[in-house]
């Protein structure tokens, strides 16, 4: 690139329009010279804006707390000790397992099941080796003999 220096300013060839645009953008960004009015917010405007943000975040937080209080959470220990161990267990969910609403008699609506297994590292090689993609795809991989137990 051909450059010329004149009074500590760098000038590029006229054919380098892209570099001229970049140079103008950098000078505009540095704001060495401000032409025209520069709007400065008053403290009252900033305080009103922050109060608006506070009320918005407070209302979203209250809505999230209300919606999360509508869920019923039932926790059953993985090692259920009151029944003899079998390969597959069917456990009755009672109101003593659940928190959320008192006097719960029946779970209605959509039911989501989540597992919490403690003491297992998800990146351990034996855990990754036992991954069954057919089961994750929704296929039943249990044999009928196992279900008869």
UniProtKB/TrEMBL annotation:
Name of this chain's protein: Uncharacterized protein
Originating species: Plasmodium yoelii yoelii
Xref: InterPro entries: CDC50/LEM3_fam
Localization in the cell: Membrane
GO CC, alphabetical: endoplasmic reticulum; Golgi apparatus; plasma membrane
Its membrane topology: Multi-pass membrane protein
Superkingdom per UniProt: Eukaryota
Biological classification of the source: Eukaryota, Sar, Alveolata, Apicomplexa, Aconoidasida
Family the UniProt entry places it in: Belongs to the CDC50/LEM3 family.
This protein's UniProt keywords: Membrane, Transmembrane, Transmembrane helix
TM region positions: 40-67
């Amino acid at each position: 690139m051909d450059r010329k220096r004149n009074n500590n300013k760098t000038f590029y060839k006229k054919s380098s329009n892209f570099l001229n645009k970049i140079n103008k953008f950098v000078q505009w960004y540095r704001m060495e010279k401000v032409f025209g009015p520069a709007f400065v917010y008053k403290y009252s405007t900033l305080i009103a804006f922050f109060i608006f943000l506070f009320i918005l975040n407070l209302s979203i937080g209250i809505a999230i707390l209300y919606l999360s209080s509508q869920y019923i959470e039932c926790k059953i220990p993985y090692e259920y000790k009151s029944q003899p161990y079998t390969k597959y267990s069917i456990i009755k969910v009672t109101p003593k397992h659940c928190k959320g609403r008192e006097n719960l008699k029946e779970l209605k609506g959509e039911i989501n099941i989540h597992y919490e297994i403690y003491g297992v590292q998800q990146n351990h090689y034996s855990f990754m080796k036992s991954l069954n993609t057919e089961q994750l795809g929704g296929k039943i991989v249990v044999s009928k003999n196992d279900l008869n137990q």
